[in-house]
Amino acid sequence: MTDIPSSLEDVAEACGTRAALALLAHFEGIDLYFPHNPRPDHPILQALGPEDGPAVCHYMAGETVTIPNRSPAKRRARILALHEQGLSTAAIARKMHQTQRWVREVIRRAGEDDQGDLFG
Question: Which residue among 1, 40, 93, 114 is the one 20 to 30 A from 32 at the CA level?
């Protein structure tokens, strides 16, 4: 299971690789709590669908799992691209499942990299 992070290997074994990869795709970079009895509109059920969603929630009931980031460099590049498109830090944070503070930090650091050498 080379594409599955170690934190999701149990989910992949019990509920299938498709479910584990869907969790990674939809909830990357956040701590995800699995409710015992999720509502039909719960984000996990919406993301994984009517078969995988309930199965994963049943298997992981009451647990919180940190869904890892696959590629921080790609995430930073995506944040900067969204910033260039004019999205607010709040909108970028929601879209990227990051805090606004982190989004501002990524943008600030990119600005430092773009500055020329003052004495060069």
Answer: 1
Q: Which residues pair with 29 in a beta bridge?
A: none
> How far is residue 41's CA from residue 82's CA, in Å, rounded to a whole number?
28
69 in Cβ contact with 29 (< 8 Å): yes
Strand partners, 1: none
The Cα 120–Cα 114 span in angstroms is: 14
Domain limits, the chain: 6-66, 72-114
- Sequence length of the chain is 120
pLDDT tens for each residue of 17-71: 999 989 988 998 889 999 999 999 999 999 999 999 999 999 999 999 988 877 7
Phi-psi region of 16 (alpha: psi -120 to 50; beta: other; left: phi over 0): left
In terms of Cα–Cα distance, which of 42, 25, 41 is closest to 33? 42
